[in-house]
Amino acid sequence: MVITGADSLTLADGTSHPTGYWAEEVVASHRALREAGIEVDIATPGGVRPTVDPISLDERGGVPEAAAAEFRAYLESLDDQLARPLVLAEVDAADYDGVYLPGGHGPMQDLARDADLGRLLTDTDRSGKIVAALCHGPAGLLSAVGADGAFAFAGRRLTVFTDEEEGQGGLKDASPYLVESRLRGLGAVVESGPAWSSTVVVDRNVITGQNPQSSADTAHQVVKALG
């Protein structure tokens, strides 16, 4: 599981917006994978401790207090891993059966242009292993552009936090770019469900979820694919 190391996002006007990873996406995904008996390592750029987006733990992010308390408790149970994640640059695709990218706006800041992630994703996809991404996590797929400018996931079917959802409940016009539009521009075939629905798209080894509501279903599809 590759988690953003960013704690802020540079907005379209150049100002800084506090962000990080989205609590539900890490918690629901990690829990579903572990309950299925899958071992999950956590990596971040530079091995930094990842920051949870503060609004993913309160009502500003549409998260009821009871759910926020559950997420906090689960994240506390992962504290050893979160405090000492693997260094992304040192992760070898050969050692894993798949790569999973949860979201939050943080991936737009760092993972989208992380060459080490691009290498990991390209190697994982070429070997036919699982590439999974959720909500804004597919921003990380943008890193998989070769020296020739070819996008590793051009022509692949996937979903992502939509431009519509960004306009309704995301950063709206303040966003530095729209992940859905950027992926389409690189040749990805984006398929979207209704806003805020649980929507998962599976294209062979590539598994993507549209939004936080898709967290558990995305992880369950990864479990199914891993057999």
TrEMBL record:
All copies of domain DJ-1/PfpI, residue ranges: 24-224
Keyword terms, alphabetized: Hydrolase, Lyase, Protease, Stress response
InterPro entries: Class_I_gatase-like, DJ-1/PfpI, Prot/Nucl_acid_deglycase
Pfam families: DJ-1_PfpI
Record GO cellular component, one term: cytoplasm
CDD domains according to UniProt: GATase1_Hsp31_like (cd03141)
Domain of life: Bacteria
GO MF annotation: an example: peptidase activity
One GO-annotated biological process of the protein: methylglyoxal catabolic process to D-lactate via S-lactoyl-glutathione
Family according to the record: Belongs to the peptidase C56 family. HSP31-like subfamily.
Protein name per Swiss-Prot or TrEMBL: Putative intracellular protease/amidase
